[in-house]
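It would be a great kindness if you could assist me with a short task in structural biology. I am sending you one protein, given as its amino acid sequence and as whole-number tokens for its backbone shapes. I would ask you to consider whether the tokens describe a fold that such a sequence might reasonably adopt. The full record is reproduced below for your convenience.
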Amino acid sequence: MPNKDSKTGVQSKGEPDYLAVGLLRKPHGLRGDLLLEIYTDFPERLKPGTTILAGDKHQPLKITRRRPTNDGMILGFEGINTPEEAGKWRATVVYVPTADRPTLPEGQYYHHEMIGLTVVDETEKVLGELTEIIITGANDVYVVTPAEGKDILLPALKEVILAIDLPANTMRVHLLPGLIDEKDEDPE
């Protein structure tokens, strides 16, 4: 079963309603500001006038001010004017509606769009389903779960990932030597 990844939102089949963009860590200063740990690749969209949705109940918070820090971003919100009021939001994940996400350049995809793709090799052999994406820092790793056998871990490199076709629900890959254990592929 796909995992939930706190930095990218729910990693499951289909499109989620909301995408996590950060975590409100703790109050900052005397005006009711909060330190935000940034999850999004698009922090520029978190600007004064923008409404984000806080917590599991997706309560709206309108950003009134912001400034960058080494640890993320300091945000002020409408109606939150003291450290005590801000403290109520400590350790709260904030979201934006999926419909508000920026359009990605051609050839780039949001993780939730890729979960559930059927993964095939160059000979059209079905390897399994893309069930999880592991964020490693260097490059993502795609977890492909076959109908039988062990998961296949594919590095998200252009030498491995040949094509993604969302309308056809497929990902075509080139298997580098060692990516699949030969004894698992050809049992004797």
Summary: The chain is about 5% helix and 40% strand. The first strand starts at residue 4 and ends at 5. The helical segments are 83-87, 111-114, 182-185.
